[in-house]
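User: Fold this; tokens only.

Assistant: Input:
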Amino acid sequence: MRLVPLALLLAASPLFGQDPRPAPARAGLSWAEADALTRKLADIEVRARQTPRRAETVQVTQGEVNSFLNLTYAPEMPTGVTDVDVLFGTQRITARAFLDLEQFRGKVEIPTFSPLSLLSGRVPVELTGKFVNQDGFGAIEWESAYIASMRVPISMLEQIVVASSRTSERPEGFDIHAPFRLPYSVKSVRLEPGQAFLAF
């Protein structure tokens, strides 16, 4: 019976039931959606190890992906890249973010007389491409790249990604044109406006 007053006290407390993690700094993000994607990925990983395994498809929303990237995955995000916003179209993807140019100063070739040479600090970037995948591998055929609303060559995007993705294990950085294995034993991904369907 001593537990009853304690339970009532906890229930009356304004902290009871609230998420102790800091509130998202940007509208449209939520820990609930980030956690939903975490659970889905963990479930896919478990099912992928089951034998025999039946074919299944899991739906992932654009909101879940953005919340996961900006909240759960934020500590792993490349240095200088923040406020990522991914938009899904029909087998197409648009990625927006803010890029801290000071993190890439001297690492990316910018023509002296280019307006980009006058930029500094955090600037918006936007990338668009077609997502293709087959037999457990995917690739993005990049079509356009913008920095601070100015269109830049894809080669500059290549330099930025390489500079931000170099690690001791991968000193050469990440090749944005190279096919990559889909994670969690996913066989294919179908993109539609606002959502993705993962088949495994």
